[in-house]
Specification:
The chain has 344 residues and is mainly alpha-helical. Strands 1-2 form a two-stranded antiparallel ribbon. The protein is elongated. The termini are far apart.
């Protein structure tokens, strides 16, 4: 069973590079294939040929480069061939080193992750910071619920306003065509028009509330969570190289091992600095996020409460005053053309 687990683990890919950025290894999947193509099926410079004719010329217009005589031409061809071969070799070596570095980093991080998961490896833990991160994730889930419900309320209320609009038009039409019930249909039409107008005002307030919560959840909080993800990847890398250094330190102290320990110490220091830098970034972002969240939600919750209370109390003046207080400009459903309320 352990063989199957390790076989599965060897195929796992952790999206971590040396910069700690996630999602930046999209080209690494094709990197090895590109290397093989350069090394195996690269251009054969000894079989190049010169076409004397234009595009699509016949075979008689092709002069093999090997048949060209003269010392100057041979020297030029040899120099060009050497330059092309050196350039090709340089690209191949560069890609090979990139693949090697990525593969080694991925192997170390995968090994560390599996060790942690099965309880055989140690991990660096910042209890206070991890508690704050967990609180943020839980807060984001709850705010997403508020956002989903607020959007549902907006949709339902919009449909109700549209129904009141249609009902007011119908009452007004019947008031003109039913002389015996002119007054009754008339004041019902006016009531529905007034309710519709107040409903559009409330919709403006709710839409502003939804927009602000959406920005807070899907932009501000998400940006902080992306930094947290980079920090967690850096933590995994740091622990992987720390474990590697600890294993080497327990081995023999011959010349080869000492050289490997020195190289591992350098890598450990690099990843430690990266981990500490991202940890500091996360702490700062969490602090500013909390301050911003309190400021935004204080304003939005006050707006939501005042607008809802004024609407259901039938206080049109207070409802309009609430929108002015928060600098909300109404955009009626008609958008480009004035609504039927503005035409009255």
């Amino acid at each position: 069973m352990s063989d199957s687990v390790m076989s599965k683990a060897a195929t796992m890919e952790i999206p971590i590079n040396s910069n700690g950025d996630t999602g930046a290894l999209a080209e690494d999947d094709g990197l090895e294939q590109d290397l093989q193509q350069v090394m195996v099926s690269g251009p054969n410079l000894n079989e190049t040929s010169i076409v004397s004719g234009g595009y699509g010329g016949t075979a008689e217009g092709i002069i093999p480069t090997g048949s060209i005589k003269g010392p100057n031409m041979q020297h030029s061809t040899s120099s060009s061939s050497m330059t092309a071969e050196e350039a090709t070799r340089g690209v191949a070596v560069e890609k090979y080193e990139a693949v090697k570095k990525w593969g080694l980093n991925t192997y170390k991080c995968t090994k560390q992750m599996i060790s942690e998961r099965f309880g055989r490896g140690s991990r660096t833990v910042d209890l206070e910071l991890e508690a704050q991160i967990e609180v943020l994730r839980d807060t984001k889930r709850k705010y997403e619920t508020v956002l989903r419900l607020a959007k549902a309320l907006t949709n339902h209320f919009y449909n109700m306003v549209q129904t009141q609009h249609a009902l007011g038009d119908t009452f007004a039409d019947l008031s003109q065509k039913s002389p015996e019930l002119r007054d009754e249909f008339g004041y019902n039409a006016e009531t529905q028009k007034l309710l519709c107008k107040n409903g559009e005002t409330l919709l403006g307030a709710i839409n502003f509330f939804v927009s602000s919560i959406n920005t807070l959840v899907n932009k501000t909080m998400e940006d902080t969570l992306m930094t947290i993800k980079m920090y967690e990847n850096a933590r995994l890398e740091f622990d992987a190289y720390r474990s590697d250094l600890e294993e080497l330190s327990l081995g023999p102290r011959d010349a080869v091992t000492m050289a490997r320990i020195e190289a591992a110490q350098e890598q450990y220091q690099v990843h430690k600095e990266k981990y500490e830098r991202l940890r500091s970034d996360v702490i700062i972002k969490l602090k500013f996020l909390e301050e911003n969240k309190v400021k935004v939600m204080h304003k939005q919750l006050l707006l939501f409460h005042n607008a809802i209370s004024a609407y259901f109390a039938g206080n049109q003046e207070q409802l309009e005053q609430t929108l002015k207080q928060f600098n909300i400009k109404l955009r009626p459903p008609g958008a480009d053309k004035p609504s039927w309320l503005e035409e009255q």
